[in-house]
Amino acid sequence: MKSSRVIVALGEKQDMLWNTVYDAFGGKVAREKIDSFRAGAGTVLYFYDEAVVQALQAQFPLYAANFPGWALQSSGMLQLSVWSGLRELGVGASLQHYNPIIDKDVRALFGLNSTHFTIKTTDTSLTFHTQGYGHGVGMSQYGARNMAENGKSYREILTHYYTDTQITALDAQ
Predict the structure, then answer these.
(1) Which of 33, 48, 56, 97 could form an SS bridge with 71, CB 3.0 to 4.6 Å?
(2) DSSP notation for 144-172
(3) What is the pTM of this model?
């Protein structure tokens, strides 16, 4: 399963990232705390590509419920590997949990059309190559189909993708 994704933020991008985080939480997280994260040499964001997980769920419906957990485990293994590598290099690190509330802002900050991307590295650069044009809002066709095939109602599917919404009947007058 190749669902793990990584963003490395350094220098100005790291400052912009932590300002974005502060803004996204509307000041509910103390500026001092945010600034303590920004003070590091860099920030590594780990997440998994939901489109990959949903495609595998659709392809292997018998195991569909397992794929999100497997994606998290895969991401955890990647994090442990990178964390161990940083330790061997003598680079201190602080672990912070990535919060989906900043997904759209992270894609905008790093110019990513989609969360489905690969990274090409050279001695002097990192290049992100996006695949697809995930707009970050709305419903995944594959995921919705998989949910329906697994007995979820249209209400459950819609409220899964469109959180904080209400489904009501309209008057037909």
Answers:
(1) 48
(2) HHHHHHTT--HHHHHHHHSTT----PPP-
(3) 0.56
